[in-house]
Amino acid sequence: MGIIQCNDICKSFGPKVALDHVSVDIPKGQIFGLLGPNGAGKTTLIRIINRITIPNAGEVLFDGRPITQEDVQRIGYLPEERGLYRKMEVGDQAMYLAQLKGMSMKDAQAELKKWFVRFGIQDWWKKKVEELSKGMAQKVQFITTVVHRPSLMILDEPFSGFDPVNAELIRREILRLKEEGATIILSTHNMESVEELCDGIALINKSKLVITGGVDEIRHRYGNNNIELVYTGDTALAPQEGLFAILSDENNAGRHTAVLSLDAGVTPNDALRGVLGQPVAVNSFKELIPRMNDIFIKLVTEE
After folding, report:
1. Which CATH class for the 4-74+150-219 domain?
2. What is this structure's pTM?
3. In what helix (H) or strand (E) does residue 255 lie, and over which residues does it extend?
């Protein structure tokens, strides 16, 4: 049983259906991607999990029981719409938000100081929020989301506004938090981050759940059973009836890059044995698995 179970969630705003019988199970200790185009219903589901919005039907379970406001204290939520009090000092703002999550003043200050050093912003403690760059403000908000060590973190577009160096810093911290036992819901349009970070995903489109499951399992499910083969030889590779057809074969000074389409039921090992029976030297042999970006586009446009 997951840390969060959304069972048959429905939500409408007047005539607009935001979520239509959506069920998602989010396992403990994983990074779980919540995906979908703009307006699909992702943010509505996140708000329902956080008890900001109440569903018209369905229920959310936290650790197997109906979620309560006390459970929300164990959640760290970084919304896509960022917001800090611009006239406050950065340290005071961070302390205020940490104490709202139940931390004592002593613990909040100790933990925040560690995080500020880790993120290289210790010199900004006494600065006004309005003096921060967008990236600096993003760092402060990320810190205040995770400083109370919540068991569940919901990060909505956490890389937005960051340059590549700071985006990498956030990625490393997300992985570290997972290693320490946190469960993380990651809502993002960045499919590279999904492949790099996420164990599982749920894709919502037009208010409905389109697909959910493990990232590797989904990528294999939508593969075309194609293999890329790099080989050298005096003659081109020949197709093998009952094993594979050759979709393409590019020859660059005797070094060939071919794409093989395996017949139904044929494994990559079967195909490799058929290749090795020919007068060629195999340099590399790999399954062509579609990227999450391609799967996302395929599923959304088909819908």
Report:
1. alpha beta
2. 0.84
3. strand 255-262
